[in-house]
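Q: Here's a chain of 167 amino acids. Please give me its 3D structure as tokens.
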Amino acid sequence: MTKGLFYYFKPDLIVDRLDDINVLDLISRGIKFVAIDLDNTLVPYLEDEIPEETYKWVEKVKSLGLEVYIFSNANLARVAKIGRMLGLRGKGKAYKPIIRNLRQELQKRGLTPTQGVLIGDQVFTDVLIGKIEGVYTILVKPSSKKDFIFNRFLEKLLRRYLNAQKP
């Protein structure tokens, strides 16, 4: 059976906040690697202050044995700085959705795509690359209204449709 174009823009799960993600459900799916976007997912766009809820969520996920890895289009210095603050490694300038850096990260760890999840706030980068790479995808509501203008108009339209499709 062939996948329609819309398949690549429809996340497996839509949540408002990181806290809404059932980490035990991820573990039951065989997830071992959590790739997570930086801006508007872990922290508000271009801010360096990390919300307390983010610290708690990251610690909870790590305490349950999952590796959390920042996977972002942000510059390398920003990813390294936030990574140090959260005790995470990561990849900046990931060029989502173009380059297959996510699959390479999984392969380095001896993992298959089904053992990974990509969490982010944008359909046209995070969900798209996750679907192309075959990982579980989670779309979160952006933590800030500020953002790179990139495709937010189309993103809003698609989010309205996706939210209407929620069970």
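Q: Can you summarize the key feature?
A: The radius of gyration is 15 Å.
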